[in-house]
Amino acid sequence: MRWWNTYRLLTTMTERLQWSPEEIARYRLWKLKNLLEYTYFNSPFYRRFYDQHSVHPDQIKSEADLKLLPILEKKHLQENDPLEIVTNPADEDDDRRPDWRIEVTSGSTGEPLTIYRTWRDLYYIKAKIIRAFRQTGFHFYDRQAVLKSSTESLTGRHWFERFGILRKYWLSVTDPPGYNLRRLQEIRPQHLHGYPSGLLSIAELLLEHKQTFSIPVICTGAEVLGPTVRREISEAFRAEIFDLYGVREVGNIAWECSAHEGMHINDDAIILELLDENGNEVSAGEEGEIVVTYLDAIEFPFIRYRLGDRAVRMGGNCPCGSSFNRLKNITGRSDARIKLPSGKWISGLVFQELRTAPWVSAFRIIQEDTTSIKLQVVPKASLNPVELDALVARTSELARGELKVVPEVLSKLECDKSGKIRAVICRLPDQNGMQSETDYGEDA
User: Fold this and answer.
1) What are the CB-based long-range contacts (under 8 Å, 24+) for 287-294?
2) 156, part of any domain
3) Predicted confidence (pLDDT) per residue in 331-390, tens digit
4) Which CATH number characterizes residue 298's domain?
5) Which end of the chain has a smaller Cβ tally under 10 Å, C or N?
6) pTM score of the predicted model
7) Residue 435 lies in a domain
């Protein structure tokens, strides 16, 4: 019966979608001050962290004062005992000890992170993702298929699924596309949520046989959704596509509404900063690195937490009427950019054009030094050397002619531990001198 708490939260969260910017700002500041004070006096790690940087919660009078706080890196959490980070570290023989739900991120490009959660934390995470789904037209009685890295839910089956409420059918991207297509045809879902690369492999199978299979609503997440991939998935499934952005640590961060003009940030739960190379907030239309403060996590806080992802801020008002701020798009991870010999970085999204080559089934760009990039490509059929040369030449043009392109023809691209396929991987240290990794999974 625990999940009734989720739906009580969902009611108030849904009402806040209609709040004015002024109401949201007051609410966020109130939550921020409470979070900082509670964390400072109850988390040994955070108290040491802030004392080392000579900062105290009393100094935070407005959201603009957030910049006084140090940025929290993933390594800071990895290097400390989780029971030093949590704000309720009661002794094991204490009756007040929380019923911890221990979660470990996949660590697909780095060391995994152990997160201690309570059921309260899970209620908020669940409510946020359901609210996002409902903005896409999702109904509680819809059959929902989930195509991710595992065929099992993090929290298991729930009693209400027996009554047709929030029924979920789990599929894995590690299974063959043909098998997943047959499962979808058996399930006949009205709503599908999955990784773009996994959905694309099924879509390509359908289009290759000049077939379609209708699923009204598809929500993508965990990987950058390029326009070509969006178009192919939409065509194969005759679906309306909605992109979601979330990470394992804090759950859903932003969601695309029916207006399809950017992604609304969960402004009532998250303060999202987009920072330039000097740590200053970027303007609308500019790309920055994402730093989040999660206002609803009081047991295992994430305050000014660097995700390692990048996005473009969007200005103006959304036609849907919600005053929640928007991101224009997620441009990828900091390690999904390519560094030119000049020292400039270019977004990995520029290489999405390579997917338009009709003979290319999949591709990946890997950079390991500042003079060259490796182009891994999987052909749909037998390889034509002339077509490969043309693809190499176009890749070089997209890299502004500054990098040598070394082709590598493969039969398939290997997924990382989380089941995702990243199209661009830079193995050079970024401007912060580190390679960070965030697991985008969430039990939705």
Assistant:
1) 287/311, 287/312, 287/331, 287/347, 288/312, 288/313, 289/334, 291/71, 292/250, 292/253, 293/32, 293/35, 293/66, 294/249, 294/250, 294/269, 294/270
2) no
3) 877 657 788 898 887 777 678 778 778 888 888 899 999 899 999 999 988 888 999 999
4) 3.40.50.12780
5) N
6) 0.80
7) no
